Amino acid sequence: xxxxxxxxxxxxxxxxxxxxxxxxxxxxxxxxxxxxxxxxxxxxxxxxxxxxxxxxxxxxxxxxxxxxxxxxxxxxxxxxxxxxxxxxxxxxxxxxxxxxxxxxxxxxxxxxxxxxxxxxxxxxxxxxxxxxxxxxxxxxxxxxxxxxxxxxxxxxxxxxxxxxxxxxxxxxxxxxxxxxxxxxxxxxxxxxxxxxxxxxxxxxxxxxxxxxxxxxxxxxxxxxxxxxxxxxxxxxxxxxxxxxxxxxxxxxxxxxxxxxxxxxxxxxxxxxxxxxxxxxxxxxxxxxxxxxxxxxxxxxxxxxxxxxxxxxxxxxxxxxxxxxxxxxxxxxxxxxxxxxxxxxxxxxxxxxxxxxxxxxxxxxxxxxxxxxxxxxxxxxxxxxxxxxxxxxxxxxxxxxxx
Length: 402
Description:
- This protein has 402 residues and is of the alpha+beta class.
- It has helices spanning 13-43, 51-56, 58-64, 74-96, 213-216, 218-229, 240-274, 285-288, 309-322, 324-338, 382-401, and strands at 3-10, 114-117, 124-127, 134-139, 143-148, 156-165, 168-176, 189-194, 198-202, 207-209, 277-282, 295-296, 304-305, 341-346, 370-372, 379-381.
């Protein structure tokens, strides 16, 4: 198995300055490489510059600027150039597919927050001993930085990344050959229905409440964002007050993100611990949260008819606040580690299909919370009906595969 471990770094004041300089210099390298590709395509008869060409220039760049580029790991700089190359590969793939291209952009220093070391021992070293919760990671140009290792690392460390989130620094270890820790069988199976009123409902009728972390902190976050917006553009990023306001907004978003991730991990762990098989809807969150298309008004040239965009925006915000995609990814990873089976099924009409007679109709969903079949009269909670149908479909899929 492949697993990532994220640990909090505890750098000294001097090391924190060095980490910031490392991000700044890698950001400069990324932007310089992007500028070279743009100039070559525009002014040199549409010449394409590739990763191999730019990687070959690194030796000369380091020799020309030893103060900024020569002090950092050569392999980490190659990883930064690969990051740009992947951005261009994704750009060309979207162009060929007819999607919105999204040309790679220049990175601001505040938005370039990760440096990757492709191999443990090359520019970085993970110094860990068993049962030591205050281990260290050695980074070229920074030194030995203390790490709060809150759990043991298993497997073989392949890559090491240093990441900044607000005022916090983290080290991310990507490990392979991680042994699975299978749990004893329980004999229980469950289908889950994801929702907004309830975060999820199981086929056993159990509801897990939606904590709505973003909505809970909406007032505080709105006040911080409004304060940040009061600074005129000409003074942004130049005053101490503006930087403090930006840090406050980032701090609130970071808190919401951590609360949501903690809730997802605990909920997924409970499901995996109590069930051998878990079925869920195959959800396309990106498509579900798209804004509705505008409706031109035929009677008023240049005018538009109401399209429910305001109501859809509220629903989209609730869906993204729940974080269904992140939760299902965490659930799949924990299930794989524990030797459990997760089955995704088609999500269409799960809450409109009667589990008793199989009748499918929009009218079966009386309200958001109530289901009542128009043929046989079966009535139940709509989310419970959806979870039951998810489990029924998963059994059909599993039987067909067997």
